[in-house]
Structures are given as C-alpha cells and as structure tokens.
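Design job #97: recover the sequence.
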C-alpha cells in the first residue's frame, strides 16, 4: 500500500495542490491519502503562518471539521482510496520525518502560493526546511499549476557531481509511472560546452547509464545563472514537472534562497518534485 501525505491550510491554493495530487493517485498507485493540518505550524500547506487565538481543543475540533470538508471534495476526485484525517499541534518542518515514518508515507504534497510581502519573505526558508527535513519525495505545487494536464514531459536537473546521491529507486518509480512522458536531463552551467575534465566526462558517462532505459535527451547548457537557465529550458520544452535532488550547497539552494526561487514558486506553473539525496 502506498501512502500520500497532503499538507493543507484549507485555502483554495492548498486545495489546488490537492487537486493536482488527486490526478497522480492512479499512476503512482496510491491507495491511502493522509490529509494533514499542523494548526500551530508556520508551514501548513502553502507557507502561511497561522494565528492561534483559541484554545487547543477548539482549534483541533475546527481543524478536523475543515479536514472533513476537504475530504468530501477530495473523495469526489478519487476512487478506491482510503482518506485519513490528521490535525496536530506541532512544528511541521522538524516533525515531518517522524510523521512520514510513523504513517509510512511515500510522498508529500504541498502547495506554495501568495503575493504579500510577508508570504514572499517566508517562501524559501520554510519550503527549503521541508525538503531538507523530509526523508521522502516532496512535490511542491505552484498556485498557477494547470489541473487536468497530463504529465508528458519531465525535466531532471543535475550538477554533474556526486551521482551516488541520486535515489535511483524513487526516481525510477516515478518515471515508470509515466512511461509516455519525454525525459530531458539537463545540466546548466557557465562552463557547459567547454572542454570537460576527465572527471566530468566520467560523470557524464555515469549519468547516461543511470537513465539508459528511458531514452532520455541530454542537454548541457551554457548560462551564468543556473536556476534561470533551468526555468527557461523547462518552459521552452513545456515541462510538466521538474525533478531535483537537493544538496546543501548545490543548485537547489539557489532555488529556495534567491529571487529566482520566488519566480519558480509564484510565477511558474511547473510543479517541482524534490527527491531526498542518498546519504553517503
């Protein structure tokens, strides 16, 4: 049984992420969904803080009632899927690994949304914390994501370093769920296309072996701004989803710690799947 965890703050933007998640239930063979609300956390589905003005029991009851309403909406979009409801008084980023382990979660889905200055300030640090703390894939759904559009193009990004950190099983499991999707593997670097070192050439050969059975297209793009290059490539190739494997000091740090990351979350309609790196 595969289990999907959907984080929600009951906003329409969070439900958009839920709608997107619902269309992945069959391809990913999900048989159980946990609708989850951390009612005192600063991360509740869409990176928004929540003010607590009532007592804990009242908040819990209201949270469960709202989860029930969202369950009704989700049930209309899925079939033969068990939907469980959970509301907890926790700080979600630090609790996410424990939650995923106890509930045997296979993938986490969360939305990002908002245009206010405070929301933009919070975006990046909170989302980054989620993907750093999670031990399972995290699917981040921008608020402008088109619902109902099939996944027919996947872009996987790489910095041509430490391919041993790629969680091959989780990556293959996702790619196998969408056998008709075109796969583009890209490296964006200001030195791309120049004379590669022997080490880099060996890394490229390893990369080709990793994706050998998927008939992938490999592109090495010369651009000063790596993240901007990824987004430009993904948009020009009409990517349905971008897959990354976060590293503390790698390209994903740029995704979530500069203005380009805000462009991805607020202006792009391309969901981002973050796979947890294999620890050495």
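Job complete. Output follows.
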């Amino acid at each position: 049984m595969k289990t999907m965890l959907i984080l929600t703050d009951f906003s329409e933007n969070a439900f958009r992420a839920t709608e997107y998640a619902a269309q992945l239930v069959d391809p990913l063979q999900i048989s159980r969904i946990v609708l989850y609300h951390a009612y005192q956390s600063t991360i509740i589905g869409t990176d928004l803080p929540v003010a607590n003005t009532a007592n804990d029991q009242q908040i819990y009851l209201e949270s469960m009632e709202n989860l029930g309403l969202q369950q009704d909406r989700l049930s209309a979009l899925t079939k033969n899927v068990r939907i469980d409801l959970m509301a907890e008084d926790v700080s979600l980023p630090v609790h996410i690994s424990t939650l995923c382990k106890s509930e045997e979660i296979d993938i986490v889905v969360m939305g990002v949304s908002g245009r206010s200055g405070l929301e933009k300030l919070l975006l990046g640090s909170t989302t980054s914390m989620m993907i750093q703390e999670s031990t399972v894939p995290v699917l981040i759904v921008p608020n402008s994501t088109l619902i109902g559009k099939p996944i027919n193009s996947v872009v996987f990004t790489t910095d041509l370093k430490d391919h041993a950190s790629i969680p091959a099983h989780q990556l293959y499991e996702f790619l196998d769920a969408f056998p008709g999707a075109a796969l583009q593997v890209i490296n964006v670097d200001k030195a791309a296309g120049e004379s590669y070192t022997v080490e880099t050439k060996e890394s490229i050969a390893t990369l080709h072996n990793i994706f050998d059975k998927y008939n992938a297209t490999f592109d090495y793009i010369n651009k000063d701004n790596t993240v901007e290059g990824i987004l430009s490539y993904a948009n020009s190739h009409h990517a349905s989803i971008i897959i990354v494997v976060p590293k503390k000091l790698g390209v994903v740090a740029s995704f979530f710690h500069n203005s380009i990351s805000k462009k991805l979350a607020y202006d792009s309609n391309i969901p981002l799947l973050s796979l947890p790196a294999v620890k050495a």
